[in-house]
């Protein structure tokens, strides 16, 4: 019998009636999950060669992989060594940390606020709600979002509290197994929920989990990023605790394969990137990110690398690993070649010829040089660069997106030289990207006629607000991790000091508005959990840089280097 063959009573006290639009998790009478939710024991795991030392090319051709030898499974022990942290405390209820840094008065208050956001299901912590703001209508801010929980999970892991993370991973995994329908269309088996909430039936005194797979979201878009974040968090849990038993569970192995099967299946694609609808990630409203958005491509790359470290290389796992290795090679080449923009590449695009035909074409996507926006010429510094927002036929979105570029650094999608260039850009354009509150989710804002066309006159995404050039404190943890990985912690320290001047005083808003992030967002929730958790994670990583190992992967030296297009053009 399948572990996930569960029976659920959807109709609770007449409140939940539409089985097509809600997925629930009810009693499990025939399965004992109690052992799975026990606190993990620190394990003495043999240190094998990491992905940094063992190239993808070598891995794909190894006799162990071809023979499905379990012993050849690659465990990740990168340069950032994180010892098992069970029982460890970092910066909470301690006046001074073990590294000698003074604890900011905000830290204790932030921990109190984070703990108030915790959600319990049948007595066990399973996540944190999006915001604890009783002054506004709840909408879906009282739910546990997969992407929102990631910084909370990292904070708990760094503080030696892995139980809530383990519970969350298992609960969302079980929700994945449910049949998912929007109207009469059935979603893929591997889709992870965007969010879930605990439903309490007062008549039966019974709790049930209710999941949203996009059927209740604005625009009815499935969350492409949820599955990637789940894999990344599973690897962070394994790295932090030293406990591989969770990832080794057949259910977790199957969950990873199902998520990646959605992305690695063959189709009409001519690119290794993922084709996505608008609103499928953190930017969950219409903002012109349809196509091949950088955030999804970077998360996809990181999830592939994490899965490569977690999947068993036997049976179905062996075949999946082979697919992952091939895709990583193609994806890294494509992103580094066509999404990267620096001063030289910008000048080259400016001089593009159009309507080229055959495999010798330089302007492969037939981008019209006149479509280059004026702002990008002034924005690009002499030293610096970034991955642009989107590349597809006859279209390049030159906007800067913070999450995609930070994830590119952490996953080593960006080469060391590109990572340095991204940091150079942030320093050179500090006022534009950090300003009075880190960090711009994207830059610049779209406005006027372009805003009306791209957003459909969205009243929430007006210029320099929300996803349209708003400043999001949660991005502080990603910026800090990227700074530490590139050896530039002073940039993170400066950004944290900027945030500390206002975040607590403003009651931890969701986002800030204005060109420099001066104003609390016009519709921003207060006590936003991921703003709180993002700050805590940033502080703890600066205190103990080894924490970055949970979310950072070193470069695979044998990955094909980016082709210098200028050389080929001169041939």
UniProtKB/TrEMBL annotation:
Catalysed reaction, written as an equation: Hydrolysis of terminal non-reducing beta-D-fructofuranoside residues in beta-D-fructofuranosides
InterPro entries, per database record: 6-hairpin_glycosidase_sf (IPR008928), 6hp_glycosidase-like_sf (IPR012341), Glyco_hydro_100 (IPR024746)
EC number(s) from the headed UniProt entry: 3.2.1.26
Gene3D superfamilies named among the record's database cross-references: 1.50.10.10
Keyword vocabulary terms for this entry: Carbohydrate metabolism, Glycosidase, Hydrolase
MF terms in GO: endo-alpha-N-acetylgalactosaminidase activity; sucrose alpha-glucosidase activity
Hydrolase as UniProt keyword: yes
Gene Ontology biological-process entries: sucrose catabolic process
Family: Belongs to the glycosyl hydrolase 100 family.
Function comment: Invertase that cleaves sucrose into glucose and fructose.
Protein name: Alkaline/neutral invertase
């Amino acid at each position: 019998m399948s572990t996930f063959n569960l029976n659920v009573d959807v109709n609770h006290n007449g409140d939940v009636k539409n089985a097509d639009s809600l997925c629930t998790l009810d009693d499990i009478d025939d399965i004992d999950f109690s052992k799975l939710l026990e606190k993990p024991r620190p394990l003495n795991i043999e240190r094998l060669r990491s992905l940094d030392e063992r190239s993808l090319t070598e891995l794909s051709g190894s006799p162990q992989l071809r023979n499905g030898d379990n012993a050849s499974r690659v465990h990740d022990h990168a340069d950032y060594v994180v010892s098992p942290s069970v029982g460890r405390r970092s910066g909470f209820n301690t006046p001074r940390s073990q590294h000698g840094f003074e604890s900011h008065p905000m830290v204790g208050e932030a921990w109190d606020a984070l703990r108030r956001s915790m959600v319990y299901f049948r007595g066990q912590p399973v996540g944190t709600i999006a915001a604890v703001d009783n002054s506004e209508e709840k909408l879906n801010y009282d739910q546990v979002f997969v992407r929102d929980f990631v910084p909370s999970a990292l904070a708990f892991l760094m503080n030696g509290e892995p139980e809530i993370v383990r519970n969350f991973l298992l609960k969302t995994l079980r929700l994945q197994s449910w049949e998912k329908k929007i109207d009469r269309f059935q979603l893929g088996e591997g889709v992870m929920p965007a969010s879930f909430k605990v439903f309490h039936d007062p008549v039966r005194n019974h709790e049930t989990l209710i999941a949203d797979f996009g059927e209740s979201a604005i625009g009815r878009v499935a969350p492409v990023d949820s599955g990637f974040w789940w894999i990344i968090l599973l690897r962070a849990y394994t790295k932090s605790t030293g406990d591989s038993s969770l990832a080794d569970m057949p259910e977790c192995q199957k969950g990873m394969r199902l998520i990646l099967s959605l992305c690695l299946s063959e189709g009409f694609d001519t690119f290794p990137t993922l084709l996505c609808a608008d609103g499928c990630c953190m930017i969950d409203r219409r903002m012109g990110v349809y196509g091949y958005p950088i955030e999804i491509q970077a998360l996809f790359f990181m999830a592939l690398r994490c899965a490569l470290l977690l999947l068993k290389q036997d049976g179905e796992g062996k075949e999946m690993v082979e697919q992952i290795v091939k895709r990583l090679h193609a994806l890294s080449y494509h992103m580094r070649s066509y999404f990267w923009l620096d001063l030289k590449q910008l000048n080259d695009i400016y001089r593009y010829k159009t309507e080229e035909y055959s495999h010798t074409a330089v302007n492969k996507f037939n981008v019209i040089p006149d479509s280059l926006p004026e702002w990008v010429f002034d924005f690009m510094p002499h030293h610096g660069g970034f991955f642009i927002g989107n590349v597809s036929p006859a279209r390049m979105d030159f906007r800067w997106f913070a999450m995609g570029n930070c994830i590119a650094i952490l996953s080593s999608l960006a080469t060391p030289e590109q990572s340095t260039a991204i940091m150079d850009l942030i320093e050179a354009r500090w006022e534009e990207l950090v300003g009075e509150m880190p960090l711009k989710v994207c830059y610049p804002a779209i406005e006027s006629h372009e805003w009306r066309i791209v957003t459909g006159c969205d009243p929430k995404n007006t210029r320099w607000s929300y996803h349209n050039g708003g400043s999001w404190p949660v991005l502080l943890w990603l910026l800090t991790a990227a700074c530490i990985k590139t050896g530039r912690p002073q940039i993170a320290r400066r950004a944290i000091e900027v945030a500390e001047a206002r975040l607590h005083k403003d009651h931890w808003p969701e986002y800030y508005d204005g060109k420099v992030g001066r104003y609390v967002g016009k519709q921003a929730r207060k006590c936003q959990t991921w703003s709180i958790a993002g700050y805590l994670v940033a502080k703890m990583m600066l205190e103990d840089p080894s924490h970055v190992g949970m979310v950072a992967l070193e470069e695979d030296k044998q990955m094909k280097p980016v082709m210098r297009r200028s050389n080929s053009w001169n041939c």
